[in-house]
Amino acid sequence: MADEDDAGGEGSVTGLPASLEMAWGLRERPGKGPRPTLTLPRIVETAVTLAAGEGMDAVSMGRVAKELGVSTMSLYRYVTAKEELYILMSDAGVGAPPALPPEAEGWGWRELVTQWAYAQRAVLMANSWILRIPITGAPVSPNQLAWMERGLAALAGTGLTEGEKISTIILIGGLVRNEATMAADMMDAIVKSGVSPDQVMGQYVRTLRLMTGPDTHPAVTRLLESDAFTGSDEPDFQFGFGLGRILDGLAALVEGRQAVQDGAEA
Amino acid sequence: MADEDDAGGEGSVTGLPASLEMAWGLRERPGKGPRPTLTLPRIVETAVTLAAGEGMDAVSMGRVAKELGVSTMSLYRYVTAKEELYILMSDAGVGAPPALPPEAEGWGWRELVTQWAYAQRAVLMANSWILRIPITGAPVSPNQLAWMERGLAALAGTGLTEGEKISTIILIGGLVRNEATMAADMMDAIVKSGVSPDQVMGQYVRTLRLMTGPDTHPAVTRLLESDAFTGSDEPDFQFGFGLGRILDGLAALVEGRQAVQDGAEA
DNA sequence: CTAGTTCTGTGTATTACTTACACAGAAGAG
DNA sequence: CTCTTCTGTGTAAGTAATACACAGAACTAG
What is the CATH number of the domain that holds B31? Predict the structure, then answer.
């Protein structure tokens, strides 16, 4: 009586949309009808190029189709909805995680996780259009899962439970995305207004000063009086600080358990 | 030569849109023209009710206007763009931070920050439509700033620099939002598919199993073989774990400096 | 009191976007 | 050779944001 949550269409075993099964390399092209003019990768690549060049706002089904020289509706032979295209674009945009450097052989979990976080951040900041695609659900695409694999692998030596590991990955992944999004928002504001980063921050501080005061907002006032908003390396500081705290907290947990275990063994 | 980033319209000193200056209580109603039929609070309240009842997708300018019994365009007399309405809705949705309980008098920073984070989370989960409004820029509305004030105040006793404090607030605020969003996404999936939370998780695990394996995804495989995805208190665990790690990391920093200072004084 | 100013609500129209649907024709299967 | 299946496409429906100009309301200066 359950109404058949058949999101995967006909030949689906995974429950995923056909386009995603395609991305995973499952599902052959049926030899029947006319040769397709397009391929899913070509559509995605076109959409990605458009997003990189003109921003996510430029990515509409009609525009992508025009770029490919086909009609809008033809895209719906490859993708059942625009959101599906978004997922494929995200996956292509993040790409596969880069190979670890040779010296990573001797790294501990902290170095591995740090590298993972910075690598992810670099990708998102180099392709900031990805950040304009809202996250809809749990990761199911190949590259997203490859990054997840890498993150979990980095935590292998920690002795954390699996639940703690995935929580950590989500925690740090969220940090990376949040901070990259803030940086991208700021970049947008700079481009849109045509002024320097310092001027954007200055305007914000000036605005806040007008609305806050020592009586109503003592802590904010202290913040505004400090030099916290001067210096354009602020996004980097914020990210490094956040990651540092998380890793410190993780280290405390890991080392604490290590000590307990060592004590029990002795 | 700077092209007058005059986002605030005529009488603006703050640089904010008129509707936001209204929300701050600046700017009087000009006594000239006909009496307005609407008020900004009434518009926002209507939009919020709509969002709470039917979700953010139901909130369009046309629909809000219909709900109020006016024409679509009349709303543009109060708000210059839909995004402005969104900001006001968010502000109304989060509301003012609740009063601290009396026993908070004796609390340390950790309790204060914990309370702050959980309170914010509760508000977001009770009004999850807020999570569907993308964040566009730095907070400028009254309640958003009140929450920020509270967060910064909670860190007053830590000895952190102002830059570290705001980084911490952003870090934890991001965690709260991320985790609440994931919980809301899951809730949506449950409602949409009509099955139980466990079944949704089960379907996800089953899907991943089909696409991963010990050779390509050893760490993910270990995760899937564990019981990390069973048990529906998982969102709560994840949030608590993340917050715990961050606070532990913060404590290490704070106490480390305390120790250094004590040493210097001795 | 009157004229002028300013502001309100509204109708109309433009532009853009997603997607349902049905049809013509291509390519392989039997 | 016929049938099935699949492709690209045109058309059209439905929704949405918002620019623009107009009619009329309420206040203000004289």
Answer: 1.10.10.60
Q: A184: distance to nearest CA of chain B, Å?
A: 10
Same domain? For B83 and B110 the reply is: no
DSSP type of residue A73: G
The domain in which residue B260 lies consists of 102-194+233-265
Which of the listed residues B38, B64, B94 is the one where a domain comes to its end? B94
d(CA A126, CA A122) in angstroms, rounded, equals 6
Eight-state DSSP code of residue A217: -
Read off the pLDDT of residues B105-116 as tens digits, 9 standing for 90 and up: 999 999 999 999
Per-residue pLDDT band at A251 (split at 50, 70, 90): very high
Does one domain contain both B139 and B184? Answer: yes
* Measured distance CA(B151)–CA(B175) in Å, rounded: 14
- CB neighbour list of residue B211: distance below 8 Å, 6 or more residues apart: A14, A24, A140, A142, A145
Q: What value does the mean pLDDT take over residues B240-248?
A: 98
**Protein A74 CA to nucleic acid C20 C1', in Å?**
13
Nearest to A56 by CA among A90, A80, A19: A90
Checking if the pLDDT of A232 tops 80, the result is no
Q: Residue A115's closest CA among A151, A166, A161, A77?
A: A151
CA A15 from centre of chain? 23
Which residue among A179, A182, A246 sits closest to B249, beta carbon to beta carbon? A246
Pair A64, A75: CB distance under 8 Å: yes
Q: Give A36 CA → D17 C1' in Å.
A: 36
- DSSP class of residue B203? H
Closest by CA position to B111, among listed B157, B147, B145, B171: B157
**Which strand D bases fall within 7 angstroms of a protein CB?**
4-12, 15-21, 24-28
Report which of B46, B161, B8 is spatially closest to residue A225, judged by C-alpha positions: B161
> How far apart (Å, rounded) are the C-alpha atoms in residues A15 and B181?
23
CB A207 within 8 A of CB B140: yes
- Percentage of chain B with pLDDT > 90? 85
B219 and A156 in contact (C-beta within 8 Å)?
yes
Q: What is the CATH number of the domain that holds B124?
A: 1.10.357.10
On whether both A49 and A116 belong to a single domain, the answer is: no
Give CA–CA dist A104/B211, Å, rounded: 27
Per-residue DSSP letter, A233: T
Q: Are residues B78 and B115 in the same domain?
A: no
Q: State mean pLDDT over B218-237.
A: 92
Mutation target to probe the B interface, by most B beta carbons within 10 A, among A16, A91, A100, A162 is A162
Q: Is residue B101's pLDDT more than 90?
A: yes
Does the CB of B32 fall within 7 Å of any strand D atom?
A: yes
Rg (Cα) of chain A, in Å, rounded? 23
Asked if strand D contacts B136 at the CB level, meaning under 7 A, the answer is no
Give the nearest partner residue to A149 out of B137, B149, B219, using CB atoms.
Answer: B219
Q: Give me the count of residues in chain B.
A: 266
